[in-house]
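wait is this the right file?? whatever heres the structure
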């Protein structure tokens, strides 16, 4: 933020940023982090603030791109797990 314009907040405001990964370190970045997070929230942009969360998000995005998505009813998933473990779900 303190390095001039356009900065990350400007890019968020103009819709050029779709995901913010911000892991602040030190006093100066603390003030920048507040502005960045505030802009992300205001413009409905996901904001990740830890490396662990960034890693998990990257893995999730990769899985989504490689495997796609599949919609299933929770009851069907439960039946499939029960069948795999040999448990009856019919109430017998």
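ok assuming it is, sequence goes like this
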């Amino acid at each position: 933020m303190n390095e001039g314009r356009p900065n990350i907040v400007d890019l968020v405001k103009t819709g050029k940023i779709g995901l913010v990964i911000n892991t602040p370190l030190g006093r100066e970045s603390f003030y920048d982090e507040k502005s960045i997070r505030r802009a992300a929230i205001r413009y409905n942009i996901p904001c990740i603030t830890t490396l662990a969360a960034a890693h998990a998000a990257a893995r999730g995005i990769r899985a989504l791109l490689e495997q796609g998505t599949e919609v299933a009813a929770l009851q069907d998933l439960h039946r499939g797990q029960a069948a795999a473990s040999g448990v009856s779900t019919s109430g017998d």
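The domain at 8-85 is CATH 3.40.50.1380 (Rossmann fold). so i think its the right one actually
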